[in-house]
Amino acid sequence: MARLKIWYLPTVSHTRTVFSEETYQRFLVNFDVTENMTDHNYTTEVIEDGIADFDGLVTGWGSPPISKTALQRAKRLKIIAHSAGSVKGFFTQN
Question: Is the N or the C terminus of the chain less surrounded, counting Cβ atoms within 10 Å?
Answer without folding.
Answer: N
